[in-house]
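Quick one, C-alpha cells below:
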C-alpha cells in the first residue's frame, strides 16, 4: 500500500504563523471595538441540532448546511423506501446534527435557553468559525470565521446607528478607507412586493433581488418569471430596479414609488431616524449608501439590512447584518427584537492582502533573540532571558549552542528585530551587546538598560 499524499478538503485552509499574525491583527481591531461599545463575549458549540438550524436561512441556505452523520450504526433506522425517496428524506434519518451556518441562529437559541439569567437588552459578540457547503471560490470558503455583535431585547434604532459606527471604527483601525455600507429596510422590500401585486412572495423576491449585482436586472426578472410572478408584477418592478443616484435622490424616488405603501413608508422613516442618530453622534462621513434593492437573502431579517463592500477589490461583502423581530419566536420566545451584524474575517484578510494594508511589524512575535554560544555562557543567558520575560519582553533563546551566523539567520527568517549577544566576555563584564537587526547598530548595555531599550523601542 503506497503512502497517500495528505490533502485538505476543498474550501478549508491551514494558517501558518505569518497568516495567523495578520489574522490576530484583524481580530484585535474587531474585538476591542466590540468591547468599547459594551458587548460581552459568548461562544456556542460547533454543532447544533438540525432542528435548530433548518428553516432559518431560506431554502438556499438550508441546502448549504453541513450535516453530521449520527454516531454508531446510522443506517439502522432506515428502509429501502428512504433510499428511493431522495436525499432529503434519507438525510433526516441518518443526520440529526449539523455544523453551524452562522452565529446568529445559535445566539437566538442560547437566548431562549438562558432567558431567565440574562439582563435585557443583551449585547454579545462572538468570534468563531462557521461552515457552509458552498462551492469554493475566491473570497468564499467552506470554513470561515465570523465576528458577530448583536443586541437583543430592544427595538431602538440607536443600535443600528452604533453598528454603523462600529463598522467605520474597525475599518479605520485596519486602514481600509474606500468602502460602501449599503443600507436598506426589509419593510421597503415588503412595500415593493405589495406595490407590484405579489405580497405573498416577499421571500422569493428577496432571494432574486439579492443576486442583482451578480447576474444583472434582466436575469433577476427571468428568475422571478420562473417563480410564477405575473407579467404585471414584472412590469411594475422595473422602476424599482432602476432607482439610482445619491442618497437624497434615491430616498426621494423611493418615497414617491411607495407613497401608498404603509410598510414601505415605515421602512423609510426608520432609515431617516438612523440618519438622525448618526448626526447626533457627529459621525461625519459614514460611508452610507441607501440602496432600496439591497435584499440580503437570509429569511429572518425584518427591518434594517446592511452590507459592506470594499471598492476596487474583486471580493464579495466583508460585513453584513440587520434587524430581526421574530428569530427567538421560532424557539418559543416571541416578541423579542434584535439587531446584529458580522465581519467576515477571511474576506477582510484577502482585501488587506490585495491592497497591501497589513503593517510591516504584524508578523513580529519575538522582540529579542538571546544567543547561545557555549555551555559556559548558557546559564548566564538563561538568567537574562528570565529577567526579560519577567519584564514582559517577548523573548526566546536559541535552544542549543551554535555559530553566530546560524543564530543570526534564524533571527532574520523569523523577523526578530533584536539579537542579544552573550558570550564569555559579556558574562565576565555583565555588559551585553544588543544588535538591532533592522539597521545593524550594536551597543553594549547592562540588563536593566536593555530591558528599558526594548520596552521603549
Amino acid at each position: 500500500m503506497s503512502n497517500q499524499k495528505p490533502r485538505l478538503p476543498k474550501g478549508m485552509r491551514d494558517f501558518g504563523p505569518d497568516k495567523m499574525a495578520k489574522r490576530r491583527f484583524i481580530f484585535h481591531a474587531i474585538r476591542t471595538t466590540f468591547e468599547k461599545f459594551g458587548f460581552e463575549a459568548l461562544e456556542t458549540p460547533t454543532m447544533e441540532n438540525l432542528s435548530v438550524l433548518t428553516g432559518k436561512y431560506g431554502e438556499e441556505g438550508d441546502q448549504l448546511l453541513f450535516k453530521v452523520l449520527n454516531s454508531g450504526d446510522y443506517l439502522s433506522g432506515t428502509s429501502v423506501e428512504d433510499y428511493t425517496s431522495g436525499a432529503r428524506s434519507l438525510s433526516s434519518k441518518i443526520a440529526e446534527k449539523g455544523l453551524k451556518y452562522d452565529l446568529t441562529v445559535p445566539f437566538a437559541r442560547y437566548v431562549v435557553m438562558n432567558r431567565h439569567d440574562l439582563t435585557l437588552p443583551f449585547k454579545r459578540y462572538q468570534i468563531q468559525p462557521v461552515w457552509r457547503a458552498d462551492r469554493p471560490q475566491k473570497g468564499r470558503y467552506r470554513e470561515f470565521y465570523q465576528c458577530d455583535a448583536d443586541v437583543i431585547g430592544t427595538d431602538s434604532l440607536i443600535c443600528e446607528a452604533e453598528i454603523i459606527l462600529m463598522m467605520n471604527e474597525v475599518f479605520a483601525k485596519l486602514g481600509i478607507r474606500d468602502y460602501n455600507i449599503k443600507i436598506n429596510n426589509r419593510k421597503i422590500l415588503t412595500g415593493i412586493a405589495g406595490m407590484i401585486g405579489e405580497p405573498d412572495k416577499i421571500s422569493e423576491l428577496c432571494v432574486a433581488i439579492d443576486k442583482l449585482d451578480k447576474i444583472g436586472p434582466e436575469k433577476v426578472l427571468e428568475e422571478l418569471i420562473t417563480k410564477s410572478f405575473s407579467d404585471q408584477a414584472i412590469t411594475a418592478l422595473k422602476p424599482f430596479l432602476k432607482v439610482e443616484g445619491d442618497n437624497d435622490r434615491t430616498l426621494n424616488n423611493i418615497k414617491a414609488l411607495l407613497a401608498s405603501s404603509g410598510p414601505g413608508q415605515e421602512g423609510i422613516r426608520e432609515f431617516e431616524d438612523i440618519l438622525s442618530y448618526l448626526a447626533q453622534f457627529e459621525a461625519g462621513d459614514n460611508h452610507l449608501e441607501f440602496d432600496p434593492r439591497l435584499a440580503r437573502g437570509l429569511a429572518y431579517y425584518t427591518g434594517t439590512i446592511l452590507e459592506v463592500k470594499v471598492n476596487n477589490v474583486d471580493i464579495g461583502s466583508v460585513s453584513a447584518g440587520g434587524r430581526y423581530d421574530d428569530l427567538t419566536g421560532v424557539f418559543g420566545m416571541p416578541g423579542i427584537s434584535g439587531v446584529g451584524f458580522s465581519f467576515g474575517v477571511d474576506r477582510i484578510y484577502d482585501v488587506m492582502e490585495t491592497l497591501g494594508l497589513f503593517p510591516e511589524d504584524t508578523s513580529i512575535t519575538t522582540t529579542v533573540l538571546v544567543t547561545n554560544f557555549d555551555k559556559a555562557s548558557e546559564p548566564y543567558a538563561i538568567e537574562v532571558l528570565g529577567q526579560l520575560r519577567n519584564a514582559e519582553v517577548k523573548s526566546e533563546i536559541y535552544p542549543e549552542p551554535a555559530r553566530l551566523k546560524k543564530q543570526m539567520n534564524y533571527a532574520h527568517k523569523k523577523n526578530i528585530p533584536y539579537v542579544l549577544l552573550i558570550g564569555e566576555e559579556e558574562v565576565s563584564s555583565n555588559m551585553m551587546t544588543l544588535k538591532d537587526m533592522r539597521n545593524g547598530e550594536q551597543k553594549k548595555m547592562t540588563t536593566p538598560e536593555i530591558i528599558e531599550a526594548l520596552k521603549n523601542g
